[in-house]
Amino acid sequence: MNSKVKVTADDAGNVIIPSQSNPEWGYIRIMQIHKSFNNNGFITRKEVTCLIKGIISELKELNWKDGQELEGKIIIKESFEPFNKKEPERDYKIAGKTGIVCCQDGQPIYRKAIYTIVENAVDDLIEHNNGDAIRDANAILKKTVTTTETSDFAL
Prior knowledge:
Blueprint: E1 5-8, E2 16-18, E3 25-37, E4 43-55, H1 56-62, E5 69-70, E6 73-79, E7 103-104, E8 107-108, E9 110-116, H2 131-152
Antiparallel strand pairs: 1-3, 1-5, 2-3, 3-4, 6-9, 7-8
């Protein structure tokens, strides 16, 4: 159901992107299209991306090219424990464009995309229960967009 994992380059065509804080380290961005069916029978298509991080010399040894297809898949792992203890907010599970952190009983959920070649690996998801806050934020966003669109055409 999902597409193959593909290597992607930046706008300048670079596959390996050096770290801004340490030029010896960098990353390669990969992506995969995930397709699923919702409870109403509609198919949804979502682009999922992941970073392969490492020492520049080791990333170069992979010899990956833009558009190259890779074996394996990208899975989503969610947790109540931050993946990055120094900057836990980097991995918050955010509800769309709302900026609202998805939580379960007030506890934030952390989310990370991981590349794996393990065939039977599956997503490990945690359901949030702060839907009211997310719906309120979406309503505000919708009202803001509608107001902005209306004011753009005012004479």
